[in-house]
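ok so I'm stuck.
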Amino acid sequence: MSTFTETRSESITLRGPSTAQPIIVALDGSALSARALPIGVHLARQRQSPLILVRVAPLDPPPDMFGFAVGDFSRERDFAGAYIERLVQRTHKENPDVQVRGEVLSGGASRGLLEAQAEHSPQLTIITSHGRTGLSRMFRGSVTEDILRGSHSTTLVLWPWSLPDDASLGPDHPSSIRNEPVTLGRTILVPLDGSARTARILPEAFRMARDADGQIILTTVLDLASTTVHRARDLEHAIFRALEDRAQVIRDAGVPTKVDVIVSADVAGSLVTHASSSRADLIAMTTHARGSIGKFVFGSVANRVASRASRPVLFTPPFDGEVSYDALYPDVPASVLNLASLPHDVSHP
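replied:
not stuck anymore, here's the structure
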């Protein structure tokens, strides 16, 4: 079982709201993973949320059969703790308005992060793929599916080419967590399939686009290979009208929104291609939801998009009956929550 060790320095003064749901940034000790920090800091400041820096050390307490000396394990834990401590202190020093603390996780990467999400109920977890250690193994094969299947909170997956390049954020010298905003959400592609489950992503996409002064592109990919020409045309028009109705609600709430319907049997490939052609800087979608149109199974689609997209992907799970959506989206209009069929208090603005 993973162990969570807080490494916050006693000299650090935490600021910001203590009751807001936190944002987690997962780190593996590499310069690449640390390049996600400016995005985490920017979002934490923007949302007035606590920031938790998590070092993923994929190690379990070592039984002798593994041939791993206890001393080596302890040194690795100490190194991970010192790394997180330095990042916490630097982040706080350069961003005193952001509440920040650190933790070290032991165990498998996916299991550790899932347990961290369960413990802290974050509004967002930020992960960098293809780092040199730890997380470089996270987004390959079955571990990707573990995260997408098992997570009960929203996860932002970042790619190396989508991150700010700052050599000072290396594993030994994390000397600058830059203050300038690193904005995602100027153009967000949102895949929908007609179901309430895939619409669960809309409050997340709305908030990201609004805060970035961006726009949303609502997109449905239809597999009409076995449908008659007349039926296909009618279905395409009906889906377009349904998307337009949702788009108008989002426009009325203050975020420009477009609508696209694509006919293709390759759902994931079409989404990745459309994101590129529309110059979207973020894909936002729901995981493991089965839609009512064609063979649209989001578990497999989300996994394929995650492995093929050339831009960040924001994943959120379907509706969880135990989640308070008033607390999770206090700044999202009730009309947008209604689009996602999310329960909320009648007094929600």
